[in-house]
Every structure is written in structure tokens, then in C-alpha cells.
Specification:
Blueprint (H helix, E strand, L loop, with lengths): L1 H7 L3 H9 L6 H14 L5 H8 L4 E5 L9 H16 L3 E5 L5 H9 L5 E4 L7 H7 L5 E4 L10 E4 L1 H14 L4 E6 L11 H17 L2 E6 L4 H14 L5 E5 L4 H10 L9 E7 L1 H4 L7 E4 L2 H16 L8 E4 L2 E3 L9 H8 L2
Parallel strand pairs: 1-2, 1-3, 3-4, 4-5, 5-11, 6-7, 6-8, 8-9, 9-10
Antiparallel strand pairs: 10-12
């Protein structure tokens, strides 16, 4: 530090302020110190800093990889959260453990991290209960059944589903199907997004006097193809589908095509809670309600860091609705499908 201070023509204290971000330093002075560090090959010692401050400046993003397949949408959450953590002076580590509370307990007791950001939240989540019983700061990307006392950010699945149903009804569709990912063998029980979306879909179609069917399938293209075949067998007069299963979307569209169903001529398909990249993997490109992944990843980290820095203020509890992006997979109810349905 003395060498850096001498080269940058500043005090040792100023070098310490730059390294530890403990006091504001003028941009020009900071630049000189960082340039001197670069020239001398000086590197911050993260372990030494942690021992001195009793903080590691590491936060863990918990993802239940055994129960939830990694998807394009999850990756967007990770990258946004990682960048935000870096901008705020923290390192974010992806911790792909199960949703078992005991594994969370091991993480808490390790002393390795300053805080936890929890993803893929269940309505009754044992991990949240374990964290509430500890002194470790945490925040959720998701909500439990009773989130009133919890810091969280989440997708507004309820209003996003209402927008999806309203859009399809506006195109003349009155026979809808909802396909979700709740049918996987190792799926999270009581997974918030699926439960809330199912409930809202059922409420909306009933309130609007529409006909509906619900199908669950695993998160894979082959399962998506199977879901399409089941739909055509059980409810062949369906004219529009709301699909909430990224990894099944390609197979679902292929399954319809295999049986001669034109999208959107015979059946409209709307992807909900996904990304434009996933929507673009099919032909035709899917109309999509895009998850606010980047925004929520950033907000989740900020919510946790607010606690770590003891900034005070009201506890953040926020929901963000999906953004509608029209593709080529939705359109007015087709004449052929309408005629077929009227003869049933």
C-alpha cells in the first residue's frame, strides 16, 4: 500500500479508502490510485479483507437445480443479478442446491457468505422458514403463501395471465388451453408461478364464460410434443393455447404441426413467462409475455444489499408484470376451427 501511495502521490489512508470503499474519493484521485495498483500488480486480498471486516462481500443465489431445469429465463436472472452485485461491490455466487432446508442450514453456518438471494420460491418454502430463523440477511425473487413480512420482488403472474386471456378472447377465441410445467417428476410442489397462474387462468375463463382445459408436462421438447397430442385427443376444438413451459415449447409446436394443425390458422399459441430468444426458436415465432428477468435480478440484489448496508427505509415488496411482444403464432380464431367446434 505504501508503494501504491507513493506512485499515486497520495496518502496510505487514501489508498485504503479506494480499496475498501470506506470513504468517498475524488474520481481523478481514485483513477490515479487504481492506475498505480495496475502498474505495480497490486491485487485486493479478498480473504484478508474478509478477516479484517468480518464480511466476505459474497452473496449466494440459491437455485434448486434438482427440481428446476436451468432455462434461458433463469440465466437472464443470474446475469443481471451478477452484474448488479458487482456494481454494488459484491460478488455473487450461484449455489445450485436442492430445496432442502438442511442444505440451507449448512450454507448459513459456513460463514462463507454475507447474504442469500432465493429463487424458485414455493408457497410453503422450508428454505424461507430456515432463513427467517437465522440472522443471515436474505431476499426473495418470488413469494411464499404469506409474504407480508418478507423482502421480495416477483413477477405479477396474476395480471400477466389476465392480459393473456384478455388478448386471446379479443381475437375471438373462446376455447382455451393452459399448458404448464407442473407435471415434471421432480417438480417443486406448490411452486408459486405455476400455482398462481393456474388459479388465475381458471378464474378468468370462468368469469368470462369461456371453455378451457389444463395440461401439465415435463420441461422437455418430447414432453411438449406429447402435450400437443394429448390436447388434440382430449379437446380437439381448442382454438388457443397459453403455454408456460420454455423447454416444451419447441416440441409442442412440432406436435401440432405433425398432426396438421396450422399455427396460427387453426390454433393460436401464446408463450407466457419466457424470453424473446425462446419465442424465436419455433416456426412461427411465438407471441410472448416476456419475463422482466433483468429488472427483477437487479431489484433482488438491491433489496438484499439494502439490508447488508443497513440503509433503513421500508422493506421492498414489489411485483412486475410481463411485457407483451406480438409474434406470428397468434391471430383471429380460424374459420376451419370455428366450423369444427360448432358441429360438436
Amino acid at each position: 500500500m505504501r508503494d501504491v501511495a507513493k506512485l499515486a502521490d497520495v496518502s496510505i489512508a487514501t489508498v485504503s479508502f479506494v480499496i475498501n470503499d470506506t470513504k468517498p474519493v475524488a474520481p481523478a484521485t481514485r483513477a490515479r490510485v487504481e492506475e498505480a495498483m495496475l502498474q505495480l500488480g497490486y491485487r485486493r486480498n479478498a480473504l484478508g479483507r474478509a478477516l479484517a471486516s468480518k464480511r466476505t462481500r459474497i452473496i449466494a443465489l440459491l437455485y434448486p437445480a434438482l427440481q428446476r431445469r436451468l432455462s434461458e429465463t433463469a440465466v437472464k436472472f443470474f446475469t443481471s443479478a451478477t452484474q448488479t452485485a458487482k456494481d454494488l461491490g459484491y460478488n455473487l455466487v450461484l449455489w445450485p442446491i436442492s430445496n432442502d432446508a438442511e442444505q440451507v442450514e449448512e450454507l448459513i453456518s459456513s460463514g462463507f457468505i454475507d447474504g442469500v438471494l432465493l429463487m424458485e420460491v414455493q408457497l410453503d418454502d422450508a428454505r424461507v422458514e430456515r432463513l427467517q430463523g437465522s440472522t443471515l440477511p436474505f431476499a426473495l425473487i418470488g413469494r411464499t403463501r404469506h409474504p407480508e413480512e418478507l423482502p421480495y420482488v416477483d413477477v405479477d403472474f396474476e395480471n400477466s395471465m389476465i392480459e393473456a386471456v384478455s388478448y386471446l378472447e379479443g381475437l375471438g377465441h373462446r376455447r382455451l388451453c393452459f399448458v404448464d410445467s407442473g407435471g415434471a417428476e421432480h417438480a417443486l410442489s406448490g411452486y408459486g408461478p405455476v400455482v398462481r397462474s393456474r388459479a388465475t387462468f381458471a378464474e378468468e375463463v370462468e368469469r368470462r364464460g369461456l371453455e378451457s382445459v389444463h395440461i401439465s408436462c415435463e420441461e422437455s421438447p418430447i414432453s411438449g410434443q406429447g402435450a400437443a397430442e394429448r390436447l388434440l385427443k382430449t379437446a380437439p376444438d381448442t382454438t388457443a393455447v397459453i403455454l408456460m413451459n420454455d423447454n416444451a415449447s419447441f416440441g409442442f409446436i412440432n406436435g401440432l404441426d405433425k398432426h396438421g394443425i396450422d399455427v396460427p390458422g387453426d390454433m393460436s399459441v401464446l408463450l407466457i413467462g419466457s424470453t424473446p430468444d425462446v419465442a424465436a426458436t419455433t416456426d412461427p415465432r411465438l407471441t410472448v409475455l416476456t419475463l422482466p428477468s433483468t429488472e427483477l435480478g437487479r431489484m433482488g440484489v438491491e433489496t438484499l444489499v439494502d439490508q447488508l448496508e443497513e440503509r433503513g427505509g421500508p422493506m421492498r415488496q414489489a411485483v412486475v408484470i410481463c411485457r407483451f411482444e406480438e409474434g406470428q403464432s397468434t391471430g383471429p380464431v380460424g374459420k376451419k376451427r370455428t366450423t369444427a367446434a360448432s358441429t360438436v
